[in-house]
Amino acid sequence: MLALRLGAYTLTSALGTGLSAHRDALCHMRGGIVKKHWETVADEFCVAEVASLDDVVLRPDLRHYDCRNNRLAQLGLEQDDFINSVRQAMARYGASRVGVFLGSSTSGILSSEVAYRYRDPQSGALPAGHRYRETHNAYSVADFVRSWFGLTGPACVVSTACSSSAKVFGTAQRMMACGLIDAAIVGGVDSLCLTTLYGFSSLQLVSSQPCRPFDGARDGISVGEGAAFILLERGDQPQAGDIVLSGVGESSDAYHMSSPHPQGLGARAAMEQAVQQAGIALTDIDYINLHGTATPSNDAAEDAAVTSLFGTQLACSSTKGHTGHTLGAAGGIEAVICALALEHGFMPGGVGSQSRDANLHCNYLLHTVVRPLRHVLSNSFGFGGSNCSLVFSRVDA
Amino acid sequence: MSTASIFLEGISLLGPGLNGWEASRAILRGEQLFEPTALQVAAPAALPATERRRAGLAVKLSMATGLAAVEHAQADAATLPSIFSSTGGDCENCHSILEVLASPERMISPTRFHNSVHNAPAGYWSIATQCTAASTSLCVYDATFTGGLLESLSQALASAAPCLLVSFDTAYPEPLYALRPIPYPMGVGMVISPVQTPQSKAVLRLALSQDPAMQLADVSLEALRLNNPTGRSLPLLRQLALGQNGRVVLDYLSDCQLAVEVEHV
Questions:
Q1: Is B178 on the interface with A (CB under 8 A)?
Q2: pTM of this prediction?
Q3: Other CB atoms within 10 A of residue A327 CB
Q4: ipTM reported for the complex, 2 dp
Q5: Residue of B nearest to A120 (CA)
Q6: What is the CATH number for B163?
Q7: Labelling A233: which of A34, A346, B10, B71 has CA 20 to 30 A away?
Q8: Span A158-185, pLDDT tens digits
Q9: How far is residue B59 from each of residues A186, B54, B124, B168, measured CA to CA in Å?
């Protein structure tokens, strides 16, 4: 399969806006999870919130898309000169040859959550001016980004829970392989909402303190929000130093709606396929950015999958302790973290975890390690048993 | 504009007054009156008992649509990568969650929550069919079918293996119904293959196009095309039902439609 060049990339999360804030936080092991009363939630929750989203004003011609999720999308697009990179790609390939494939689990559902509080007491109708199509519908964020650039190529939102924005890399890769497009904006945007805060609480999967992936005392996730955008282009003539998407692996657990397969069979299959598609050996992988949500069962299943395939020496860590679990945006955010790791030569130490669970056996990094990397793997697994693993590689001189 | 070809191995159709592909062909051909009567879908036996009891319309419809397409193709569901495309997923479940979140209690049920993910029907499908292959769930607002067909095309060609498309749409209850009226649920399933097989019914040559989307002469079928995103498939279904070769243009996105050349084999 064709390796695709990451022509440009950016990310925004509780760690800050843009690449340099993230590189700094990752290298210095700074987390963005805080305990607070979010929105109208009575109890305090540990959340990883993007600062000042309430102050973001959408571009006037797109203001009918106004909601927390699209504000986050716009804030994300505006970092690291990403907009300019897309415009250059449009000039190179044409507006109809650039796709938009984004992942989100809840898009702008918060707008409907709020609207349901203000139903007309007589008729039950939602408040006038509520925009379902441009805010709540899952596709709204891809529609917003496609409209932002005036693109006329294919577009979709992949919504497979927490693997969503990893799987969009596969969509873009396949569309390019069959010649429908030459480039694509991929990534993910997911924003805080009540559905996920109360939902994960109902499953008793929310930690009372900032999450602690792979720690023996881990007791659940910290919900976060974030946006990641990557411009993927055909990598026909990769240059030294380029970061490329070299492999995608996808599978289904076919086991349970909200629990992973205990031995991580689906996760293992996804990792194996991704490495195989990259055309490298398992031993060529230098680092794994784990899904590592910090629920007891997720981390145990992932540990079983990783160690059964790679043994116990391969360096790995989860960055959920930094960014929180950004759900449908996690795959995209962690793809950009992998690109940063390859570009600058470091493996981020996990934040929040004091010591590795004695029952887990992978080589979980508790401190950041600086060293050049060639191939890294990123894992994203979601409800419904949806698994996706990606291999990113740095092209040698 | 580049063209990509796939082979149609099996097809299914469930909708108002459209009770299966074979039963609907005469309606699509215009030989029998289209009467949009309510669709009855049973929960499939393939689902585990607890899930079968709890399954809402979205899960029942998507599963019945998928199973019928797989049967028509004489394929093995356990081996097929799948694409589940829907504008709202399980809309009834979403409405229930929104109601509870707007109430003083706010405590939503764990089952409601895990069923709220857009890929819940795909998750149930994989459990029921024991299929561990890749599965992608997507949303393209009004282009449920067309977006799903493009994803299926690229999945089949890039992996050089057949795959299953399940396109399905149901409605929200009020008050969201007023903003997203979908009067009738509808599901269309297709098994497609990158190469011709003894099961191949037609070759479909797909290309993105600037041509306007095709409309249907029959007023009630045209209404269904417009008011259910999966209904955007109807010009293609009609061409297939006619058994004639020809070209249709399906509604996709603004400034981007999908042209399909149908050649029966």
A1: yes
A2: 0.98
A3: 32
A4: 0.98
A5: B175
A6: 3.40.47.10
A7: A346
A8: 999 999 999 999 999 999 999 999 999 9
A9: 29, 9, 8, 10
